[in-house]
Amino acid sequence: MFNNLSRITGTFVSQAHGRGDDQAVGHYTWQGIYIALFTGAILTVLGWHSYLVLPWTRNPAEVQELTYVYIKWRSLSAISTQLIFALMGFFQGRRDVRVPMYAGIIGNALNLILDVWLIFGWSGITIGGNVFLAMPAMGIKGAAIGTSIGTFVNAVALIVWALEPRLRRKYQIHHWRRPDLKAIGNMVRVGMPAAAEGFMDMTGFLMFTIFVGTIGTVQLAASQITIQLLSFSFMPLWGLTTAASVLTGNWIGEGKPDTAAVYGRQAFKLGSYYSILLAIVVIFGRDWVFRVFTNDPEVLVLGGSLAVAAAIFQYFDGLRMLGSGILQGAGDTMYSMLVTLGIMWAGFIPLTWYLIVFRDGSVFSAWMGASVCYLFMGLAMWRRFESGKWKRVEIFK
Fold first, then answer.
1. Which of 87, 88, 256, 360 is deepest in the core (most CB within 10 A)?
2. Same domain, yes or no, for 51 and 157?
3. Which helix (H) or strand (E) holds 302?
4. Over the chain (397 residues), what is each successive 10-residue block's mean pLDDT?
5. Cα–Cα distance for residue pair 79/31, rounded to 1 Å
6. Boundary residue ending a domain (132, 153, 179)
7. What letter does residue 132 receive in the DSSP assignment?
8. Counting Cβ atoms within 10 Å, is residue 257 exposed (0-12), middle (13-18) or buried (19+)?
9. 257 and 138 in one domain?
10. How far is CA 373 from the centre of its chain?
């Protein structure tokens, strides 16, 4: 719900940077930090009480139990996660994409080490008759704790870089700024539709997962692997989306929306080329892709068809993501929210229910239905971009 609200810091920073207003860059970064602290605290409380709503999913009891364990311990990093989004906006909004990459590498490298140590456990090393670093296997709890620690370190790294002397001199980022209710109100006004869009998108997939879970545990596991596969495949597209959003904001801030449109079209082209190439690779490698995640023979039986479904889905999802990112860079977030609301809740969720529950369909048919819905969302985003209405949006009021 709140990720895009914290990310909206990047929209305000990018447009302020485009018009050369260094003070506004620092000011809106601080207001984004306040939003991140507030939303992160809410998410932490909700995560620790998520056991109250998990029974609504009607998934198997063992799935609910493990889900709560993971959510509870991952919730400890909610504030860190939101701070990362806000601080990434400070760096990326100024076209400094290296620092977030370095911080992310540090956090993820630590996460990888902690995963091996905490998930599987270790007997430790013996020095002078004493055992050090011994750890019992913690399973999914260890996975959540490792990710939470890695996320916290990622946030700390961004803070340290933001306090670098050159940035302090230019943007006065080290000077504490009071909460500015007018500025926060502007950010919430622009950011809440984006937050609602993300919430509706994730809610749609939550319902999708619930419906798939009613088929059986094997189908649910195969669907979750498909989601994990997509999370890897769309990361380059997410980077391209971030670049398109930042450049859109920069050029609009500089008073050159037509130049922003030129970059937007190039982003769509590059995203299409990448998605088509990736689809070809996944389709040809469909028989081995799932083996990266599991050796369960029942799940692997479903892997080939779901890999094809993922190849198709990621192309349409990429169009949607790129269009939404460009519009968000311009501050045109309401349109994206309305499109997502209409298609996800009036199309995607009912269609998934119809295919799985009413028609007793397969997990493959559910993913193909999802592809159709995301195709319509992608086309709607492209239509808005081509209309040029986003060029006239004003975020500083």
1. 87
2. yes
3. helix 297-330
4. 90 95 95 96 94 85 91 96 96 94 96 95 86 89 96 97 93 91 94 91 88 87 89 86 94 95 96 93 88 88 91 93 94 94 92 90 92 95 95 89
5. 15
6. 179
7. E
8. middle
9. no
10. 19
